[in-house]
Design goal:
Blueprint (H helix, E strand, L loop, with lengths): L3 H9 L3 E5 L2 E5 L22 E2 L30 E3 L3 H12 L13 E6 L4 E5 L8 E6 L4 E2 L13 H13 L2 H6 L1 H4 L18 H7 L2 H21 L3 H14 E17 L10 E15 L7 E2 L6 E6 L7 E6 L8 E4 L9 H8 L8 H8 L15 H9 L5 H14 L6
Parallel strand pairs: 3-12, 11-14
Antiparallel strand pairs: 1-2, 1-9, 4-5, 5-6, 6-14, 7-13, 8-10, 9-10, 12-13
Helix pairs in contact: 3-8, 6-7, 6-12, 7-8, 11-12
């Protein structure tokens, strides 16, 4: 199927059952996203809970709006530290999503969120009003998700980021009809010139070798090889497939769905006490991985330990399901909205650099990875070819480009080993 519109029509005709951890949630219509796959290193966001629009609102204790210590009303905002993105492309995206009845975004400050740039020029999502814990910050309908695989086609193995990249190019970016339909979203995606943090598959083989840590070296080389193979197989330019792979790895959501193919299966039960057997008919089901892109929600940046929001699926059993961002703690006006990337909200520096192209200064999961160890790890800080002090000196000397991230990765991992006695 060449047209993504056909894909969406096919999904409308199928009943999808969404796997959320161990729970099976039924849904109908074009429900594309429910829960991130419980597999390390392939997900964009932490797992999110299921809720219903008819559920009673949780009571949350808060001091917002109350007098603070008898000295007047508590300030419910932080100083503005970002500049609002007023570009036409961003406005087009907002208008597009508002046409689909999305909530919590728009030009009105009371809408709840806006896209902005911090003092370093990094794009993110910011609160334009205060939120209590449990509040819905913003939400988009499931119809606005862009599927990167066709669930009607049985897959023999899990789809990789490169597979999703080829589908993105063929179904959306290079398909004139689909490109026009989704242009309000596609036009806001990063380019090589803006909002782009190269992942190791953009590094030279020498730079990849300098990473040293076996796990990430192996992943980077394998991805580069797969990009080259699929580019040749599909007659697509290598550079196009490589950058689309970066888009998919850094911005897509990986999920698992169980699909009803419509095939009836007759089952015979065990004989009861009287020796009688019963027959029943069920539909044959199969589980399959699926990657999707979620407009606007993919603007949210990462925090390993101090994220303030989570992704939720509202009304999964209905045709008009919603993908929502819910406050995990009270959020003041002007505060950046953040979530935790990775499967189950867990992403080590290996996953952050491999899938998103950056290293965070603090990441408690690195110590857990090193403690677990294995063939893909370096057992101790003495196992590296350089010392922590060597790498720190090179960074301080002003190393730039990919080698700067190589050194940041090396210093971050070396600091994560337990102290020697």
């Amino acid at each position: 199927k060449n047209l993504p519109l056909h894909l969406h029509e096919a999904l409308v005709r199928r009943r999808l059952i969404i796997a959320v951890t161990s729970n099976m949630m039924r849904a109908s219509g074009i429900l594309l996203l429910a829960h991130l796959a419980q597999q390390s290193g392939v997900c964009a966001f932490a797992p999110f809970a299921m809720s219903s629009s008819s559920s009673s609102k949780r009571k949350v204790k808060t001091n917002q709006g109350k007098a603070a210590g008898g000295f007047g009303k508590k300030e419910d905002a932080v100083p503005v530290s970002h500049s609002r993105d007023e570009s036409q492309t961003t406005q087009n995206l907002i208008n597009f999503l508002l046409q689909w009845k999305s909530k919590g975004l728009g030009v009105d400050a009371e809408a709840g969120t806006e896209i902005g740039y911090d003092e370093n020029g990094f794009r993110g999502l910011y609160a334009t009003k205060a939120f209590k814990k449990g509040d819905i910050i913003c939400k988009i309908p499931s119809d606005c998700a862009l599927a990167l695989a066709d669930p009607s086609v049985a897959a023999t193995e899990e789809m990789s980021e490169v597979d999703g990249a080829v589908n993105y190019l063929q179904w959306y970016a290079m398909n004139p009809q689909a490109r026009q339909m989704w242009s309000p979203y596609i036009d806001t995606l990063p380019t090589r010139e803006a909002n782009f943090d190269p992942t190791p598959d953009f590094y030279s083989d020498e730079e990849i070798a300098q990473l040293e840590f076996p796990m990430i070296v192996k992943k980077a080389l394998e991805r580069k090889e797969q990009i080259a193979e699929l580019a040749q197989k599909t007659n697509l330019p290598f550079d196009e497939v490589q950058f689309a792979t970066w888009l998919v790895s850094s911005r897509s959501f990986s999920i698992k769905i169980t699909i009803d193919d419509g095939d009836l299966v007759r089952e015979t039960s065990e004989a009861d006490a009287d020796g009688l057997k019963g027959n029943s008919e069920t539909y044959k089901m199969r589980e399959q991985g699926l990657r999707v892109l979620l407009p606007y929600l993919d603007m949210i940046n990462h925090e390993s330990d101090n994220y303030n929001s989570e992704l939720h699926l509202i009304d999964p059993e209905k045709d008009d399901a919603w993908f929502a961002i819910r406050a995990a703690r009270p959020i003041k006006k002007n505060k950046e909205i953040t979530i935790s990337y990775g499967a189950a909200g867990v992403e080590t520096s290996v996953g952050l650099l491999m899938n998103y192209g950056f290293i965070q200064d603090e990441n408690k999961f690195d110590a857990l990875l090193l403690k677990k160890g294995g063939d893909d790890c370096i057992d101790s800080v003495e196992g590296w070819s350089t010392t922590l002090e060597d790498d720190e000196q090179q960074l301080a000397a002003g190393v730039s480009g990919n080698m700067a991230n190589v050194l940041r990765f090396r210093t971050k991992m070396k600091r994560s080993y337990p102290p020697t006695e």
